[in-house]
Amino acid sequence: QVQLQESGPGLVKPSQTLSLTCTVSGGSISSGSYYWNWIRQPAGKGLEWIGRVYTSGGTNYNPSLRSRVSISVDTSKNQFSLNLSSVTAADTAVYHCARLVAGIHWYFDLWGRGTLVTVSS
Amino acid sequence: QTVVTQEPSFAVSPGGTVTLTCGLSSDSVSTSYSPSWYQQTPGQAPRTLIYSTNIRSSGVPDRFSGSILGNKAALTITGAQADDESVYYCVLYLGRAIWVFGGGTKLTVL
Fold it and tell me: What is the pLDDT along chain A (121 residues), one digit of tens a residue?
């Protein structure tokens, strides 16, 4: 059974870069027609799609975050990663990685439990 | 900026039926927006309920159903149970590889 697990620092200083990794276990990140996504959730608020990466390395980002976001994939490690630069307190959130099914149907079918990142000095 | 709208909260009695909706600030929701629905309980990962408007994800009870009602996507829970008390999110595909979530509806079963 495929599972996703987020990892990375839980505390990042303002103006620095937030870096997280999602490890895919129980299956290959390269198999099937999937996009690999980052989604975040500030405390007490709703979900916000950050962006996605395909195993070819192609990416798409939320326009509101595009200037600060980079998502990459490392198929040899079965991982994909998020970098968010110039962070502020508004970037404090639980960050989830998620798999997007692509094809006849498009939807998020698998989620990680999320990791809390706090931006504070 | 396009906003996906959901009711902030809803209450239903055990055994009752409730319909949650998912709208767009700038357009009517249709199947082309590929609406999907997710259930989240505190501290847990979201769980996929419905995709492509009305297809139940594997293992989801048939008391959950999806549809288009008027100009919105809808999630109907028939015969609500106590463990349906959760936050429900919809997400729409806006094209150009952009996905937008609604703000979520907190459902109380009481």
Answer: 999 999 999 999 999 999 999 999 999 999 889 999 999 999 888 899 999 999 988 999 999 999 999 999 999 999 999 999 999 999 999 999 999 999 889 999 999 999 999 999 9
A105–B34 C-beta distance less than 8 A:
yes
* Nearest-by-Cβ selection for A48 from B43, B51, B101: B101
* Chain A / chain B CB contacts < 8 angstroms: 62
Inter-chain touch B46–A96, beta carbons under 8 Å: yes
Q: Which amino acid is at B92?
A: L
Distance CA B108, CA B11 (A): 5
Inter-CA distances, A7 with A18, B64, B85, Å: 11, 33, 29
In this structure, are residues A59 and A53 in contact, taking their beta carbons and an 8 Å threshold?
Answer: yes
CA dihedral (B84, A5, A12, A72) in degrees, to 10, reads -120
- Give A69 to chain B, closest Cα distance, Å: 14
Which one-letter DSSP state was computed for residue B57? P
CA–CA distance, B2 with B26 (Å, rounded to integer)? 6
Residue A66: strand pairing partners: none
Q: Who contacts A44 (Cβ-Cβ below 8 Å, separation ≥6)?
A: none
